[in-house]
Amino acid sequence: MSFILTEDQEMLRETAMAFARDEMPVSHLRNLRDSGANGNDPATRKKLAELGFFGVIIPDEPGGETFGLTGLGQILEAQGRTLAATPLLQTALIAASALQLGGTPAQKAEWLAKIAAGEATFALALDETAHFSPHNISTEAERDGQGFTLNGLKKYVPDGHYADMFIVVARTFGEAGDRHGISLFLVPRGAKGVTVEPLKTVDSHGAAHVNFDGVHVPESALLGPADEGADILDPVLDRAAIGMAAEMLGSAQAAFDMTLEYLNSRKQFGQLIGSFQALQHRAAKMFTELEMTRSCVAAALDAADAGKTDLAELASLAKAKAGELVHMVSNDCVQMHGGIGMTDAAEPGFYMKRARVQEALYGSASWHRDRYAKLNGF
Length: 378
Hints:
CATH superfamily of the largest domain: Butyryl-CoA Dehydrogenase, subunit A, domain 3
Mean pLDDT: 96
CATH topology of the largest domain: Butyryl-CoA Dehydrogenase, subunit A, domain 3
Shape: globular
Strand order of the largest sheet: 1-4-5-8
Strand content: 15-25%
Order of helices and strands: HHHHHHEEEEEEEEHEEHHHH
């Protein structure tokens, strides 16, 4: 296992950090919120595509070299630092991974090139309740002789308010909670019977409830074998959790840096508040947790690229650690800034709001701790 980036990955990281800093600072998210854009930013998506960020894990030709998930992780960490609202996680990671793992040659030929060029955005329509439970699927996909008919409601679909295509997790056999009987479908936004209800979210990134009412799709819309979609969904969700952990690491690092700068500039009682031992202890705790989480994320990214058998275990470890980290650091960032940290004029609150959404997406820290324990026989 190597935690050292290749020269190309390091260059990609530097480019991503510079782009996030210059083109997508927190003030940009504020402007998107105030303008009512709800996290939808076509102009920035175009720039991301021109930089090649959407195609980081998609080879130019089958079997070709890519930057790997480790490379994409650097981009996600960079956008996490500035809370950037982009479709990279949903489209460049989740959709590209699902197509690579389960797509037919025709599906790959049709969609991977469009993803890499930034010409199509995707959203994973998975959750049906308020809590992450990937096999608790009630949305039905019934064979109708010429394909399938989908019926069901998907709640809080990230990027669902503007995505061109949905990867819909539906049940073709069995009962909710069964792993067997889950199937994945590619459903266009404009399909008859698809209703999208945009949501204004606390983190200003936006999402949607998506209802599928008698939506007919052809057999060619099936992504992977019928009834065996969990074999694709589970590793895709592992990758999603790792990508989100990388983003959370970036958010936590930025919130910590902001806090440290404030501790070294704000004076009370005639001295810097960073000289107060109690605050030094809290800062030291944040620093050590940041470094431990960075190692967990690096290990998970490496496992995904190397195809290691302990990917699920490392994905849960990374997401659990990152969830605990971003919760603690975002809280301390607001608290250590004092009164100004509670105002909308300052940035700490933006990090806390985004942290609460990051923690919940693709499994909370407690969900992943429980899964990690089960994977290790406890």
